[in-house]
Design goal:
- By secondary structure, the protein is mainly beta.
- It folds into 6 domains: 132 residues, Immunoglobulin-like, CATH 2.60.40; 113 residues, no CATH class; 109 residues, Immunoglobulin-like, CATH 2.60.40; 108 residues, Immunoglobulin-like (Sandwich); 97 residues; 141 residues, Sandwich (Immunoglobulin-like).
- The protein contains 10 helices and 61 strands.
- Strands 12, 13, 17, 18, 24, 25, 28, 29, 30 and 31 form a 10-stranded mixed sheet that branches. Strands 14, 15, 16, 19, 20 and 21 form a 6-stranded antiparallel sheet that branches. Strands 5, 6, 9, 10 and 11 form a 5-stranded antiparallel sheet that branches.
- Strand 48 and strand 49 form a beta hairpin.
- The longest helix has 10 residues.
- It is rod-shaped, with a radius of gyration of 56 Å.
- The protein binds 2-acetamido-2-deoxy-beta-D-glucopyranose (10 copies).
- One 2-acetamido-2-deoxy-beta-D-glucopyranose (NAG) binds next to loops.
- One 2-acetamido-2-deoxy-beta-D-glucopyranose (NAG) binds next to strand 40.
- Keywords: Signal.
- Pfam families: Ig-like, ZP-N.
C-alpha cells in the first residue's frame, strides 16, 4: 500500500514518498547455522553494494545463497537475483563464488538510506549433508547519494532517484499523452507505463509490473526501480557502434486533482568488450542521457575505483572519440585474472571485472552517477613459450632452455627423440632438468642431455667431415586446471666440423713398422681394420703384433713377415714391405681412409707364395753347399729353371707353381707345391742328367684348398690368400729317395714364412732356360712317391 505522506502543494512540487509495508508474519523454523572459517570467505562493503566471496573449494561447485529478512528465507534463484538486486558469479579463474548485493536489494534492512543490514545464508553440500553459514554485514554508503544513480549490473539495471528529482522530471519531460493517462489512471494507486521509441504501452499497476519482472520500491528518501536486461519493454539501439539498452518507464499517480508523474529513463552500454594490441577495450556513449554532460570518471578492477588520472598512470587508457568513451585495460593490469588454455596450441586469456563510474550533470546542476559492473575477457592469445639453444659444444652436452612458461603450466613429461624421460629424476639420470622461476610469473626449464646419452642421435657426414648430434624434444606442458596437455617441440642440432678419421704416425723399424695414434674425442666413429679383420688385442696376439693402448694413445708394431704385409721389388739386395691399416666408418663399415706404409727391408733368405701362384724365394745356398761362390750354378727340379739373380752365396728364384718341375701334394684342406734347389757343377751341366749332388734346399708353398679357384688350370692360378711358404736346407750325405731327405735341416734366423703380394693373376714370367711346361694333373702321379713320402712325414 502506497501512502502519500504529506500534502502536495502545486507550487512547491516537493513530495515525500514513503513505502509502508504491511507486516507479514512468516514463521520459519529456527536455522542451525555453522561458523564459516575466515580464510574461505570475504565480505566487503562497497559504495553501493556488499560483496561476499567464498572459496569454491570450500563451498563445493554449487553453493546456494538465501537472503533472510523478517518475512523469512528467500532463495536467490537466477531470475530472482535480477529482480531483487543480487548478482552471483562464479569466478573459476580464482576458484571463487562472488555475490554482490545492492544496498536496495529486496531483503536488506534499510535504515534511512544510511544503514543497510544484510543477512545472507550460504548453503553448501558436504557429503550430501547441507550446511548453513549465516553471513551478516552492515554497510553504509561511503559517498553521499547523488540525486539520480544508475547501476548497470551484470544481470540488471537499477536506478534510484531522490525525492526532488522525482518531481522535477515531470516538468522537464512531459512526454506522456495526458489523454491516455487520464483515461487509464482511474485508481489512486501508482501506475507505470513503458514507452519504447514512439510506442506507448498500456499502463499497469505495480503488482502487475512486478509480475513482469520489474521492481519498484520507495525507501525513506528514494524511489528505486529495477529491471532485468532484455525485458520486452526495453529498447536496443546502436550509438556510434556501441549497443545500448534503454528502458523508459513513467510512474504516475492520481491523487484527487493532482497527477504525480515520475519519468524514469535508464540506459546502459551493452558493449561486450574487444581486444586490441594488448588492451581490452570497453566502450560507452559519452552522454547516455540527452541534456547531460560528463564531469568525472572513476574506474578500476574488482570494485577498487580510482580517478581517471590515477587509472591512466596505472596504464589504463581513456579516450573520447565519436562521442564514445573508449577505456583500454592493459593485459597486465593488476587485478586482472590470467589463465592458460590449450586448444592445439597453448593460449592464455585474461578476465577483468571492470567497475566504471561516470558522473553526469544536467543544465540545472542535477547530478547523475552511472555505475557499470562489466566482466571483460580477452580472446585466446597465443602463449609465447619459446626454446633457446644454449648448447656449448665444449661441454659435450645439449643445453636447451624453454622459457616464458606461464605460472599455471607445468612440465609434466618429456620425450627425447621419442623416448620418454623422467622430469623429476629419482634414479640416476644422464639428463638433468632444472626449473627456473622469475618474478614476472613465468618460469622456465633448463634441459641438459650429454651427447653420449643413448637417446642422442649421432650422424657423421663423411663428405663434409661433419659430425652432428641431434635431439628432438617433445615437452608435455600441462595447464594445472586442464587435463589436455600441450606439446611444445624443439629440434636441436649440435654440429662439429672438421671431424676427420684419425691419422697415424708411422715409422719404419729395422724389423717391422710402427703405427702410433693419439686418441681424439671422435675416434669412436671409426674402427681400425687390418685387411678384413678389426684390430683387437686378440688379433694382435694371434698374429704376433705388438699392441699397446691406453686412454691417451695407441701403439701398434707389426714385425716383418707377420700377416698383413705385402712385399714388392724383391731382389737379393733387399725388398719393400708394405703394411696397410684401414679406418672404417663404425656405422657403415665402409673403409674411409687407409694408412699404407712401405719400408725397405733386407733379409738373408725369404720365400713368398703369391695369390697368382708364384713362388719367389731368396735362398742362401752356402748354408748347405760347400761350393761357395757358386750360387750361380743352382737350379730347380727342372734344371732349365735357373735363378733370376745370384750373388756369392744366395740365389733368387721366382717361378709359377705350375712350372719348373714343381710337385703338387694335395692334403685334406690344403695343397702344397714343392720344389728343390740344387747345385749343378760345370761337369754335370755338360753331362746333363748325371747330377749326383745331394745338397738341396727345399722350397714349398701351401695354399688352403678352400681359397683356390680353378685348381690345376692350365691358364692361371688364383687364390684368396697368399700361401704359406717354407725353406728347408738339407746337408750332403742323404739320399734323395730314401733317408737322404731326413738329414739335418737348418732354418734361417728370420721367419721364413713370407706371404707374397696379392696381385691380380699375371702372365707367367720367363725363366732362364725354362720352357714353362704347365703343371698338370698327371704330374701328380709322376711325383707320387714324393708325395707319398711327404704324407708319411719322411720328407721332414
Ligand atoms: C545475523 O543477524 C540475525 C538478525 O539480523 C541474527 O539473528 C543472527 O544471530 C546474526 N548472525 C550472526 C552470525 O551474527
Ligand atoms: C494520445 O492518446 C490518444 C488516445 O489514445 C490519441 O488519440 C492521441 O493522438 C495521442 N496523442 C499524442 C500526442 O500521442
Ligand atoms: C492491478 O491490476 C490487475 C489487473 O488489472 C488487477 O487484477 C489487480 O487487482 C490490480 N492490483 C492492485 C493492487 O490494484
Ligand atoms: C642438474 O643441474 C643443476 C643445476 O645446474 C645441478 O645443481 C645439479 O647438480 C645437476 N644434476 C645432475 C644430476 O647433473
Ligand atoms: C620474464 O622474466 C625473464 C627473466 O627476466 C625474461 O627472460 C622473460 O622474457 C620475461 N617474460 C615475460 C613474458 O616478460
Ligand atoms: C609428443 O608426445 C606426445 C605424447 O607422447 C605424442 O602424442 C605426440 O604425438 C608427440 N608429438 C610429436 C610431434 O612427436
Ligand atoms: C645450437 O647450438 C650449437 C652450439 O652452439 C650449434 O652448433 C647449433 O647450430 C645451434 N643450433 C641449433 C638449431 O641447434
Ligand atoms: C683403445 O683405447 C681407447 C680408449 O681407452 C678405446 O676407446 C679403444 O677402443 C681402444 N682401441 C682398441 C683397438 O683397443
Ligand atoms: C694343411 O692341412 C693340414 C690338415 O689337413 C694341416 O694340419 C696343416 O697345418 C695344413 N698346412 C698348412 C701349411 O696350412
Ligand atoms: C759325383 O759323381 C762323380 C762321378 O760319378 C764323382 O766323381 C763325384 O765325386 C761325385 N760327386 C759327389 C759330390 O759325390
Amino acid at each position: 500500500m502506497l501512502v502519500l505522506d504529506s500534502a502536495v502543494t502545486p507550487g512547491a512540487m516537493s513530495v515525500r514518498l514513503s513505502f509502508g509495508v504491511a507486516l507479514v508474519l512468516f514463521l520459519s523454523s529456527p536455522v542451525r547455522s555453522e561458523i564459516i572459517p575466515d580464510e574461505v570467505h570475504h565480505m566487503e562493503c562497497h559504495d553501493r553494494y556488499l560483496m561476499i566471496a567464498a572459496d569454491l573449494s570450500f563451498t563445493g561447485n554449487n553453493p546456494r545463497f538465501v537472503a533472510v529478512d523478517k518475512k523469512g528465507l528467500h532463495e536467490l534463484t537466477k531470475p530472482y537475483q535480477a529482480k531483487c538486486g543480487y548478482s552471483i558469479t562464479h569466478i573459476h579463474l580464482l576458484n571463487l563464488v562472488e555475490l554482490r548485493a545492492s544496498f536496495f536489494s529486496c531483503h536488506t534492512e534499510n535504515i534511512n538510506d544510511q544503514v543497510f543490514m544484510f543477512n545472507i545464508h550460504l548453503i553448501t553440500m558436504h557429503n550430501e549433508v547441507e550446511k548453513i553459514y549465516a553471513l551478516n554485514k552492515t554497510c553504509s554508503p561511503s559517498v553521499p547519494w547523488s540525486p539520480r544513480e544508475v547501476t548497470c549490473e551484470a544481470n540488471y539495471i537499477e536506478v534510484s532517484l531522490g525525492n526532488e528529482v522525482s518531481c522535477r522530471s515531470r516538468l522537464q519531460r512531459d512526454e506522456l499523452n495526458s489523454t491516455k493517462v487520464m483515461q487509464s489512471s482511474v485508481a489512486s494507486d501508482w501506475q507505470v507505463m513503458f514507452q519504447r521509441a514512439d510506442e506507448q504501452m498500456l499502463p499497469m499497476n505495480l503488482s502487475q509490473a512486478k509480475k513482469q519482472g520489474y521492481m519498484f520500491d520507495f525507501t525513506d528518501g528514494r524511489l528505486v526501480f529495477r529491471t532485468p536486461y532484455e525485458q520486452p519493454e526495453c529498447l536496443l539501439v546502436q550509438e556510434n557502434g556501441v549497443p545500448v539498452e534503454m528502458i523508459h518507464a513513467t510512474l504516475f499517480s492520481k491523487q484527487g486533482w493532482i497527477v504525480l508523474m515520475v519519468d524514469l529513463v535508464v540506459a546502459c552500454s551493452m558493449y561486450p568488450g574487444s581486444y586490441e594490441n594488448g588492451y581490452v577495450i570497453w566502450k560507452t556513449p559519452e552522454i547516455l542521457f540527452p541534456g547531460f554532460h560528463s564531469t568525472k570518471i572513476n574506474m578500476g578492477l574488482n570494485g577498487n575505483l580510482v580517478e581517471q588520472q590515477a587509472a591512466e598512470q596505472k596504464g589504463y587508457t581513456v579516450e573520447v572519440k565519436d562521442n564514445t568513451i573508449d577505456v583500454g585495460i592493459p593485459n597486465t593490469a593488476e587485478g586482472g585474472y590470467r589463465r592458460s588454455f590449450v586448444v592445439d596450441h597453448l593460449y592464455e586469456f585474461y578476465t577483468f571485472c571492470l567497475c566504471f563510474e561516470q558522473v553526469l550533470m544536467d543544465n540545472n546542476g542535477i547530478e547523475t552517477t552511472l555505475r557499470f559492473h562489466r566482466t571483460l575477457m580477452t580472446p585466446l592469445l597465443p602463449c609465447s613459450v619459446y626454446t633457446e639453444n644454449q648448447t656449448n659444444l665444449e661441454d659435450h652436452k645439449f643445453t636447451v632452455y624453454v622459457g616464458d612458461v606461464p605460472e599455471d603450466v607445468e612440465l609434466t613429461s618429456i620425450h627425447l627423440n621419442g623416448h620418454e624421460r623422467q622430469v623429476h629424476c629419482t634414479n640416476k639420470c644422464s639428463h638433468n632438468i632444472t626449473r627456473v622461476s622469475y618474478h614476472n610469473n613465468t618460469h622456465g626449464y633448463i634441459l641438459e642431455v650429454p651427447f653420449d646419452d643413448p637417446v642422442a642421435l649421432c650422424q657423421y657426414l663423411e663428405e663434409e667431415s661433419v659430425l652432428q648430434y641431434s635431439l628432438d624434444i617433445n615437452y608435455t606442458l600441462t595447464v594445472k586446471t586442464q587435463s589436455k596437455p600441450y606439446y611444445h617441440l624443439a629440434s636441436i642440432v649440435a654440429t662439429f666440423t672438421d671431424v676427420s678419421p684419425p691419422v697415424f704416425d708411422v715409422d719404419c723399424l729395422e724389423t717391422g713398422i710402427s703405427f702410433k695414434l693419439g686418441h681424439r674425442p671422435f675416434d669412436f666413429l671409426w674402427e681400425i681394420f687390418i685387411g678384413s679383420e678389426p684390430l683387437t688385442a686378440e688379433l694382435a696376439t694371434h698374429r704376433g703384433y705388438f699392441l699397446s693402448n691406453n686412454s691417451q694413445s695407441l701403439l701398434l708394431e707389426v714385425p716383418l713377415f707377420t700377416d698383413g704385409y705385402e712385399y714388392t721389388e724383391i731382389t737379393l739386395g733387399g725388398f719393400f714391405g708394405t703394411f696397410t691399416i684401414l679406418m672404417k666408418n663404425a656405422g657403415t663399415s665402409v673403409a674411409q681412409t687407409s694408412t699404407e706404409k712401405t719400408c725397405p727391408f733386407s733379409s738373408n733368405e725369404l720365400i713368398m707364395c703369391s695369390t697368382d701362384g708364384r713362388i719367389t724365394a731368396v735362398v742362401d745356398v752356402s748354408l748347405v753347399m760347400s761350393h761357395g761362390g757358386l750360387a750361380m750354378g743352382t737350379k730347380l727340379l727342372d734344371k732349365r729353371c735357373r735363378p733370376k739373380e745370384t750373388d756369392k752365396t744366395r740365389a733368387l728364384f721366382s717361378f709359377p707353381v705350375s712350372s719348373c718341375g714343381t710337385m703338387v701334394k694335395i692334403g685334406r684342406q690344403n695343397v702344397t707345391y714343392i720344389n728343390e734347389i740344387s747345385y749343378q757343377t760345370s761337369l754335370n751341366v755338360r753331362s746333363g742328367f748325371l747330377d749326383n749332388a745331394t745338397e738341396r734346399v727345399g722350397v714349398q708353398c701351401t695354399y688352403p684348398l678352400s681359397g683356390l679357384y680353378l685348381l690345376f688350370s692350365k691358364i692361371r692360378f688364383e687364390s684368396d690368400s697368399v700361401g704359406v711358404g717354407k725353406i728347408t736346407h738339407t746337408l750332403p750325405g742323404a739320399g734323395v729317395h730314401t733317408s737322404g731327405l731326413r738329414g739335418p735341416i737348418r732354418s734361417t734366423a728370420l721367419p721364413q714364412t713370407v706371404p707374397a703380394t696379392k696381385k691380380p693373376p699375371s702372365k707367367p714370367a720367363l725363366f732362364m732356360g725354362a720352357d714353362q711346361p704347365p703343371a698338370q694333373f698327371f704330374k701328380v702321379s709322376k711325383f707320387y712317391n714324393y708325395a707319398r713320402n711327404y704324407e708319411r712325414g719322411e720328407y721332414l
